[in-house]
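Escalated from tier 1: 3,4-dihydroxyphenylalanine holo job.
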Amino acid sequence: MSDLDNQVREVKSSFDRAAGSTTTTDGLQELKVRYLGKKGALTVLLKSLKDLSPEERPLAGEVLNTLRDELERKIENKKQALTRAEDAAAEAMEKIDVTLPPRGRPAGAFHPVAQTMHEIVSIMQGLGYSVALGPEIEEDHYNFECLNMPSWHPARDMQDTFYLSNPEDAGSGSLLLRTHTSPVQIRSMLRYGAPLRIVCPGKVYRRDNDPTHSPMFNQLEGLLIEENVSFSILKGSLVELMNGFFGRELKNRFRASYFPFTEPSMELDIECVDCGGKNPGCRVCKGTGWLEVCGLGMVHPFVVRSGGIDPEKYNGFAFGMGLDRMAMLKYGINDLRYLFNGNVSYFLSGRNVS
Ligand code: DAH
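Tier 2 regenerated the structure:
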């Protein structure tokens, strides 16, 4: 009997010590298992009752049951105290101070095309260019005539647009939605004269609508007019722009092309930013390894003269690129329509629009 007394005292004191150092409800649960669980200290004692003689058993049973009640009570009391403390702590953490000034909602982000425009403009500003803007409702005169695209010119076929007046009635003064940002070249030369370094971002319009063409899209035009401008300066500037925009050195190639407003005319291809030319099945470069990103050339003397500048004294270069395409390439957007349909979920679903 005294042996049992000792064991009871032992269990009691070790329990009290353990309970005293238990500070969480989780810890308390463990404690409960340790004493009252299937293999718990008290359970083991209770199981040993069967080894006692029938005379000893009732008293021993009473002692152990009393102990069990005591431990259960202590655990329950402690549980209530700890739960209260934990609730209070959680509440304090979540407490809302309604007197604080509002922090505002998480702000939205720039549209990928706007972001692209800002990045390109900022690179070009670093090269000494200013921003010039022109109207989206443009005169035939600036959009075509001054750019060496008279009404009969076949190059107009690729740039059919939306007319706001009948070209036949109003001639070169007729109004249309501009088909490119190139008319801003003329307006800027007329307004600022030479020397001149400008970039002109903005919306342009064409009678196109398919998965890769939208009736409205965004371009960025560049124009430099100075004395003795060489083609190598044009090459250097554009390579700088592309590498700066994509954040690494990309292979490039300049291909002969044709535009009525430049002579000679070129197109710039950069190495495929998706596969680097290594994937014959690449959907971005169609397996060619190259991406056409920019039209460019030395400004045609006709255009310099249209801008009111003497082509004998000044020359220069121009380039034009699609901002939507640049945004798609940089941010891995695989369908032009995501840019315009107003469904932001595409961009929120983990796309890398940084
Ligand atoms: N305006 C041309 C287009 O929309 C792009 C372009 C090509 C602009 C060559 C330029 C240039 O300034 O030099 O297709």
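The chain has a mean pLDDT of 92.
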